[in-house]
Amino acid sequence: MSVRTKSMYTERESIEPVLLNTALEFTQAHRDAQNKSKCARELGCLKTLFPSILLGPKGGDVLVGRIAYPLAGFSNVYYPEKEGLDLLGYYFDKERAERIYKVHNNEVPFTKEDLDGLEEYWKENRSYNKTTDVMDKKMRRVLSTNDYIGKSSICHRLHRIASPSIDFHKLLKFGIRGYKEKLRFRLHEILKEDLEGIEFLGAACEYMDLFSGIVEEYIFETEKNAGLIKTTEALKRLLNSPPNSFIEALQLVHLYATTGYMAQATGRIDDDLGVFYVNDIRNGDITKEEAIEWLLNYFQLFSEHFPNSRLTMGGLGRRNVPEADEFCKVLLETTKIYFGDAKYRDGRRRSISLVPQVAFRFSKKTPRELLDQAYSVIASGATFPILYNDDINIDAVSNAFDISKKDAAQYNFFDCGEYIIHGKSIGTPSTIVNLPKALEVTLHNGMDPKTGKRLGPENPNLDFRHYQEASIHRGSKVHNFSVTAVLLGS
């Protein structure tokens, strides 16, 4: 990737005209790769997005890694501007593209015909449409919609495989260059007959080259800002070496999460970053206050990019317990400031954020001072951390997932709080089941009283509508209660 000669945009509104042309390039790359492997197609499409969608740092930022979500792209979860519903895989945000075109049509060589062409192409090629096409008649009837906000249904399908749980420990251990070398070594070892494996590893190597190019872009951008000297130095070292400091490690984790796999769950961040933090403190390279400033910016950027982001600390099964526990103290203090300190909230962020959703895992082995600190953060008025008891949860996860307790000890969370296993899960092909709606439909002889559509089997013996009508007619609250009690099996 060649380094650009102009500055990055800092506001998403400023970059909007660029996104129109990027959507054309992305679509053409997807069209040209119809006969290629899936990984080659994805790589080719990603090459059209970077560096175009990168955003520069804003005032007050110490970390880089902002991006503008493309109009046509590939993601493990994407929320269209109009519906706000999550989509999986290849997508095209028609409504957002139309809005941007109306505002910026005089600024770019992008026509109404281009917009119509994009819409027509992605009608056939959106992953949402492709997954719907393979559903049989029964599945389509039961899982009729993914609009869990606006549509009445017993079940809603979610077209997503959101938030792969990335093992950042490997990336931090080997760094960009070292991990790339490991991929290439594995590529040379693989059997010649394994064409799929060769294609995948080859694309992975090329992606790491693309990621190196992203780092170079940000080096070019930060070198022009005297207030980002530490950031520039960290990025330069990351190009060729594994991270050797807390700042380098935090920057690498954030940059890879946002530009790489859209990772909404950080995994066990205290275990991944604790050693770097403790070493820097011992060597006098950073103060606790400086670490908190970097973490506050990390919280802010993470929340801006991922509306349901999760951050987990504490608990059993960590590699570096003393260092991780020490870093937990700083994370908890950051949590208190970010979510609970009115002065910080009103003076700097100007809004109350509900993300990242911070989880604190504890057990009988958790130091008392750490648990007390978590309690005090909540008592101060902060929204988080959410508390999870390992002494109960590990057994529960082991039983629910049918895995060993060792693996279950690596439980983590994503999105709405679903359990996943750190470094191993891709969570989650999902379906929303509305149990009250199922009861309502059952008691209306299989019909949805809101839409008049049949959502369940006929069973006149379970049709209680005449009881409801009689109770309303008599105005008897007691009779209403008795019918409700019968419905609930009392």
Please give a structural write-up.
There is one protein chain. With 490 residues, the chain is α/β, with parallel strands linked by helices. The protein folds into three domains: 126 residues, no CATH class; 169 residues, no CATH class; 52 residues, no CATH class. 54% of the residues lie in helices and 11% in strands. The protein contains 20 helices and twelve strands. Strands 6-7-8-9 form a four-stranded parallel beta sheet. A two-stranded antiparallel sheet has the order 1-2. A hairpin with an 8-residue loop joins strand 3 and strand 4. Helix 7 crosses helix 8, helix 10 packs antiparallel against helix 11 and helix 11 crosses helix 13. The longest helix is centred in the middle third of the chain and has 28 residues. The protein is globular, with a radius of gyration of 26 Å. The termini are far apart.
Question: Which key terms come to mind for this protein?
Answer:
alpha/beta, four-stranded parallel sheet, 54% helix, globular, disordered C terminus
